[in-house]
């Protein structure tokens, strides 16, 4: 195994201390989802190619599997790695429908793969966290509010920078354009979706190219500028004077989502997440039919969307039964890997151990192991020193690993513990002593600010 | 998405209630590994093919990745899915050695993939749980005892049938054969390894074919029959009269592992796991150099080994530095999927919710949501009824999901809760009431015995 090792671009791997942060994010998301009754599932990583490849842009990013030494007709398995969690979830619902209770609330936290060019926030293997609610034949609108609210609470509880939820509603946009009398509603949505890349005048020209009058184009742009932290967008849309039944429904739904996600703060007013109606969010064109959302991480808007989702009236269908759904996906790798790479966050230590038990000499290793077993018996993560070096060296080993306490077995059978941060040392009984709660497990900590330098020696 | 769905052979997928069991197994293993100071890592799922393919039997089971529409030279990525967690871990150690503290204790619980013919306990995608300790240049023997002991404790804590650890030591076998004067020690090990497939006489003939005398062959077979639950195997080996320095070392090490794993029961004498010295265990031929172990699940010996591992003096090397290691791997899918398929175990319910809040009518949904939020605020997993059906129907919804409690908001602003198993109903305050601990989260339960019928109507 003397081959030279080089990292694979687009396949980020975490060191143990950074993995502490990723696990806490996964655990925290899971806790919130489960508090709301969402069941966890995992799907296999492969799907038949005819289910993955839809003729779109993403097709050429699919990784296809073949067997290494298979030949001829057996060369290809006909399977590809999934590129999101929605396609496999839709298949799971169809395959297992007879064993599921609807509405089915599920969360799924798994990697997905895309053969795209890697860049900050975009990886070839990346972890996603999805929540969805799926009904059989029908799914009342109140589940839109429910699932969005769950993701708001889940991201609010994370040790990450504040997130911003930007909501819109496809019925609102479609109804407005229809009420305005636009000749091609779909084309108009596609054009307005370019507002984050093109100046407003250019977008107006494109709308006119697609058959809109100058007046209609101006109204479309006006609609797209509306952005409010509450339901006041309703009056601003009304003031544009467009009347349409679908528009009314969209306004009603969007107001309910905004109010449902903003209301009833669950942490005494200290919520980090912000919620807005942003009427230029369109979120692609294919399957969304109502609520749509894009999530951004404050200070990291350059990563573009940190997540998103919405309502789809046909997540899956087997020809007889249709399964409508509403859900939202959060990019764990997309947000976390850049934060870890910048050193914004890390784990407070690289090992789970809260205590290192020192070894006086190899003959008494069993004494140290017994003390470690006594600590573990009441839940204290503990390791025993690998070798009976001088105590100073054993303490430095603990220091390098971030282990806060070193336990010393004494010749008379008693024990002393040293807090290596303060140097304090005192008698303890390993059968009963527990470190303070904040020292018991690795925590997520701010590593260093992104603007500071690593090394004082670099100052001019 | 109207394509017909059929399961992919070798890619088992779990329903939500069975996933409860898998998650508890993962969480329980993780808790034990962390109590012993093992840090968690995950590696990317792909490795360069030249690192995976070693010219052995496994090569043709490797799944290779290519891009769907890539052509010509770009057709193949040169990557394959890993088929175990040892190859990627060895690469991780080499790649990140400068950032790791040695001895490095890690655990890793991830899927691996093999394109083999699926059968009970053998899948194309399967979850493995590995613990290893890796040193730089050297790794004292006491870590053999440590890592084996950790896996004994980890499997002992699982809600699975009892496991049996069968230990041997490669130095013991090699030293014995050398001391016996066998002409080809490696060939003899390979031959003895066939004892579980061939009768003893045939193995003796094969040994003689490889140059052993009848007397030597008989001694080899005698060694292989030794099996003891303690260190008494030492005297039995000594009585065979073979003298060799490597044999002495192997006897000493194996005795230390057996005693270290059997001693100091950590749960008041109620350990399920059994530990034995079994001198016919050889565990392949390639990289083990000392301790070897195979794990079996009682009553499921037909699945063959449920896990295994051992000591390897060169887990990895970059030409200058060698990294010796010792570790053991447990097959989560291999043991769990057959148990779930047989219905031996399942989750106590298919949803995390301990409480369903009933909805009196759609206009008062907000009242029910507020009660749910009050329950969640102190950690009670809660869902709100999807529709304002008659209460009897809402109770049956809870029943089908296995949710034990239904909360009813009353017209006067108070609340009542019903235990739907007993029918008892009483006043509660959702801001303070918590269900009993055993009802709070889904638990692993015995589903039904494998010999009982599902349905009383099937009796003759």
Structure overview:
Two copies of one chain form a homodimer. Chain A is α+β, with helices and mostly antiparallel strands and 460 residues long. Among the domains of chain A are: 162-298, Bira Bifunctional Protein, Domain 2 (BirA Bifunctional Protein, domain 2), CATH 3.30.930.10; 355-432, Rossmann fold (3-Layer(aba) Sandwich). Chain A is 33% helix and 23% strand. The first copy, chain A, has 14 helices and 19 strands. In chain A, strands 1-5-6-12-11-10-7-9-8 form a nine-stranded mixed sheet. Chain A has a five-stranded mixed sheet with strand order 15-14-16-17-18, sandwiched between helices. In chain A, strands 2-4-3 form a three-stranded antiparallel sheet. In chain A, β16 and β17 (415-419) form a beta hairpin. Chain A is elongated, with a radius of gyration of 28 Å. Mean pLDDT of chain A is 91; it is low at 449-460. Chains A and B meet through α1, β1, α2, β3 and β4 of A and α1, β1, α2, β3 and β4 of B. β3 of chain A pairs antiparallel with β3 (63-67) of chain B, so a sheet runs across the interface.
Report the CATH architecture of the domain at 162-298 in chain A.
2-Layer Sandwich
As residue ranges, the low-confidence spans of chain A are 449-460
- What is the highest CATH level, the class of the domain at 162-298 in chain A? Alpha Beta
The strands making up the biggest β-sheet of chain A line up spatially as 1-5-6-12-11-10-7-9-8
Question: How many angstroms does the end-to-end distance of chain A come to?
Answer: 44 Å
């Amino acid at each position: 195994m003397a081959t030279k090792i080089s990292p694979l671009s687009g396949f980020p791997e975490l060191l143990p201390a950074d993995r502490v942060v990723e696990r806490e994010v996964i655990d925290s998301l899971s806790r919130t989802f489960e508090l709301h009754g969402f069941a966890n599932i995992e799907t296999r990583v492969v799907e038949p190619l005819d289910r993955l490849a839809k003729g779109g842009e993403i097709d050429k990013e699919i990784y296809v599997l073949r067997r290494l030494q298979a030949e001829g007709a057996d060369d290809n398995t006909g399977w590809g790695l999934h590129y999101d969690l929605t396609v496999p979830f839709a298949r799971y619902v169809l395959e297992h429908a007879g064993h599921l209770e609807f509405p089915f609330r599920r969360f799924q936290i798994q990697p997905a793969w895309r053969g795209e060019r890697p860049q900050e926030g975009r990886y070839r293997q990346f972890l996603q966290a999805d929540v969805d609610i799926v009904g059989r034949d029908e799914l009342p609108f109140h589940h839109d509010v429910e699932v969005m609210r769950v993701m708001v609470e889940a991201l609010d509880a994370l040790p990450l920078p504040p997130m911003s939820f930007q909501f819109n509603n496809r019925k609102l946009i479609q109804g407005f354009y229809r009420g305005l009398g636009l000749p091609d509603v779909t084309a108009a949505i596609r054009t307005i979706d370019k507002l984050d890349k093109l100046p407003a005048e250019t977008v107006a020209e494109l709308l006119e190219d697609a058959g809109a009058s100058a007046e209609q184009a101006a109204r479309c742009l006006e609609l797209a500028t509306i952005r409010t932290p509450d339901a006041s967008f309703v009056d601003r849309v009304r003031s544009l004077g467009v009347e349409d039944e679908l528009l009314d429904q969209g306004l009603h739904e969007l107001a309910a989502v905004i109010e449902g996600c903003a209301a009833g703060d669950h942490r005494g007013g200290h919520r980090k997440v912000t919620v807005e109606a942003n009427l230029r969010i369109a979120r692609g064109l294919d399957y969304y039919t109502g609520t749509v959302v894009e999530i951004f991480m404050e200070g990291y808007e350059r990563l573009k969307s940190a997540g998103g989702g919405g309502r789809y009236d046909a997540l899956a269908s087997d020809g007889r039964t249709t399964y409508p759904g509403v859900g939202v996906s959060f990019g764990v790798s997309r947000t976390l890997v850049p934060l870890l790479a910048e050193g914004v966050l890390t784990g407070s230590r690289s090992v789970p151990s809260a205590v290192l038990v020192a070894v006086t000499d190899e003959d008494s290793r069993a004494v140290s192991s017994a003390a470690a077993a006594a600590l573990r018996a009441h839940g204290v993560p503990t390791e025993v020193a690998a070798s009976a070096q001088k105590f100073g060296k054993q303490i430095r080993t603990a220091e390098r690993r971030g282990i806060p306490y070193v336990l010393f077995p004494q010749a008379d059978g008693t024990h002393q513990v040293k807090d290596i941060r303060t140097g304090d040392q005192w008698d303890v009984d390993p059968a009963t002593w527990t470190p303070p709660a904040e020292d018991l497990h690795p925590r997520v900590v701010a590593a260093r600010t992104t603007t500071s330098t690593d090394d004082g020696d670099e100052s001019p």
